[in-house]
Write a structure and sequence with these properties.
By secondary structure, the protein is mainly beta. The protein is built from no helices and eleven strands. The strands form two sheets. Strands 2, 4, 5, 6, 9, 10 and 11 form a seven-stranded mixed beta sheet that branches. It has a four-stranded antiparallel beta sheet with strand order 1-3-8-7, with no helix packed on it.
């Protein structure tokens, strides 16, 4: 009943930037947490960054200082600004909303960092 759609992925050169968006729709109320995860082939899905309803943020050490998570609550939209991208950032990026303790996932958007 909650649908999340990611966008903004693509191919970018090392050192480049991308801005991912996650648009939520449906029965979104009591939004507790939003986050970005990524999964590279052969690797488990890992947390990239998340943000709580009160604005507290958390980042994976591998992206700290390069990525910024933010949200527009009025639009039920989550963003991930990715700067100084590295080849190891290549993965499918998924957004997650925690709504009344229920976890909803987006379809994912591919980010490829390559020269």
């Amino acid at each position: 009943q909650v649908q999340l759609v990611e966008s903004g992925g693509g191919l970018v050169q090392p050192g480049g930037s991308l801005r991912l968006s996650c648009a939520g729709s449906g029965s979104i109320f009591r939004l507790l947490r939003m986050g970005w995860y990524r999964q590279a082939p052969g690797k488990p899905r890992e947390l990239v960054a998340d943000i709580t309803s009160v604005g507290s943020t958390n980042y994976a050490e591998s992206v700290k200082g390069r990525f910024t998570i933010s949200g527009d609550n009025a639009k039920n939209t989550l963003y991930l600004q990715m700067n100084s991208l590295k080849p190891e950032d290549t993965a499918v990026y998924y957004c997650k909303f925690v709504v009344n303790y229920v976890h909803y996932w987006g379809q994912g958007t591919q980010v490829t960092v390559s020269s």
